[in-house]
Amino acid sequence: MARWVDLHLHSNCSDGALTPAAVVRKAAAAGLAAVAIADHDNVDGIDEALAEGQSCAVEVLPAVELSVVWQGFQDIHLLGYCFDHHHSELRAALAEFRDFRAGRNEQIVARINQRLAAEGRSPLDFDAIRQRAGGTLGRPHIALELIALGYVRNKDEAFDRYLVPCNVDKRFFPIEEAISLIQRAGGVTSLAHPAYISRDRQVLGQLFDAFVTCGLDGIEVYSNQAGNDDIDWFLSETNRRGLLVTGGSDYHGGHREELVLGGLRGNLRVPYSCVEALQVAAARRQAEGPGSASRS
Q1: pTM of the predicted model, to two decimals?
Q2: Which of 11, 156, 158, 210 is least surrounded by CB atoms within 10 angstroms?
Q3: In this predicted structure, what is the pLDDT of residue 136?
Q4: CATH 3.20.20.140: which residues of the chain?
Q5: What is the mean pLDDT of residues 162-168?
Q6: What are the Cα distances from residue 147, in Å, to 64, 74, 141, 158?
Q7: What is the C-alpha to C-alpha distance for residues 107 and 269, in angstroms, rounded to an integer?
Q8: Is 245 exposed, middle or buried (0-12, 13-18, 19+ CB in 10 A)?
Q9: Where along the chain do the CATH 1.10.150 domains lie?
Q10: CA distance linking residue 167 with residue 104, whole number of Å
Q11: Is the pLDDT of residue 256 over 60?
Q12: How far apart are CA 240 and CA 78, in angstroms?
């Protein structure tokens, strides 16, 4: 019997709507064998997810999603898997990153409040937004506050009218540093949803080669924006380079969420073999040290 997994989920420890335990229960109800909650710059929900996974008979992989840069490419997303989520250096780096983000979000809210004042509207309460977020606060939580106050109808309008014009630039890890950080914690890395970086396959091929030289271990072949043709090409390119294959829905569980936990486009599903390969690669790295080759 085929076993399916989803290795790219989010909880309310970053910008998801559900608690880590609720995400795992939802995965169990969907019949998934394994999941990874890859919150943005945050590993605080992993212990809760692991505990719930034992209760629900769902295997849970420690995971995280980092925002990285390489040369002129901004906000590339890197997934880390099977690392020690209590690793002190990793946790300190993520805490520093979140502290910067918190300051950035306060600046964004201040800019939005200036615009609201010009419109004769009451300002946003940053403490209320923080309380709504529950975990790592991001721009989607600010959008939810704008919706709750009736200033906009949906997230798209919130971004178009307020969040984009009032944005403050993000901070990113250089991709080499992010890969090395995950590897020093005993984990392996995968490039998230590559089609969001570029639709030009020649550009992507060049990026894959560059990232391999930076130590990249895998590519998210199966993702919510990839159809059959995309997956065939990503799989071929990944195998040709001897990289790990990963996949997931990028499910956030928000209001009117279009993505389906455990499901991609049409008949596309993520096989359990991806989990096995990740675990083998991580075990090899942990046995041989962070500089070891983890690819199969």
Answers
A1: 0.82
A2: 156
A3: 67
A4: 4-87+173-288
A5: 95
A6: 28, 28, 10, 7
A7: 40
A8: buried
A9: 95-163
A10: 9
A11: no
A12: 20
In CATH terms, the fold of domain 95-163 is DNA polymerase; domain 1 (1.10.150)
Amino acid at 91: R
Question: Exposed e or buried b for every residue in 250-268, given b needs 16+ CB within 10 A?
Answer: bbbbbeeeebebbbbbeeb
